[in-house]
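PepSY-associated TM helix family protein structure dump, as promised
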Amino acid sequence: MNLRSLRQFHRQLAPIIILPFLITATTGVAYRLGKSWFGLSRDQVHFLMVIHEGEYLGKQLEPIYVLLNGLGLLFMLITGIVIWGNSLSKASWFRALFSRPQKETSE
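structure tokens r here:
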């Protein structure tokens, strides 16, 4: 897979996968802050864990939701890092920062 198709696949998958990521991150943070900062009991914030872990989807779909969410995160991270690294290596300031000075040859 070349960089162009990787970039295109990353771009196509991002709008689909952003919603589960936002739901997972928001409910996870809200659960932890609700318990730690606001002193809410586990029972009061349990609904956030139900949403966070995909329990509302049922016993059969919950593990699939978790698996796809995790694989999606790994895919987006890896492809994003590859794309970013490639664009960074093409940046003139980056190349100048890490280029070796040429040795002068005396004849």
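The first helix runs from residue 3 to 36.
lmk if u need the other ones
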